[in-house]
Amino acid sequence: MSVLQAIEETQKSLQSLNEELQSLHLMIVEDKPLKDCVLLVDQLGNTVEDLTGWCEEAILQTSLARRAAEAESDCHKVGPAFSGAHEKLLQLDQRFHGDLASYQRISELLALGYEKKGEWTDWSETVMSGIERCQPLLANCQRAILQSWQELSAGSSGHVYKAVALHCLNT
Known about the structure:
It contains 6 helices and no strands. With 171 residues, it is mainly alpha-helical. It has one domain. The C terminus is likely disordered.
């Protein structure tokens, strides 16, 4: 696999995660029962909005890395752009596991469905399902970004490796 192919795979993984996060945000905010206002809905909606923003930023940074890998004259920009994407993915991962998919948040979500019953039970189960669908997609992004770093460090794409080496020698 070349650096360019690995970066493209990372971009695809991030786009799949982004689509699922957007779908989850719609479930949380738009599909909530109309009866009662619940703080948990706002908290979940805000969290998923943050996650989506970081994912979109990672996609943008990955696009910049891809364009730099395609252009021989810009190959020295691959690493910094890809590093930016990786940083956003790490922020996303930390917030996803530390907040959205945390034991406390899942307990609150399930308790809400149990206590309010009816539409809230269906809503909480749907949101829980959406969170569960995001987990393997996030893991795919982590694997894809690791593969990209491995390809970049191995220099499997000759012009990228040479450009990075030349840039390092010239500084």
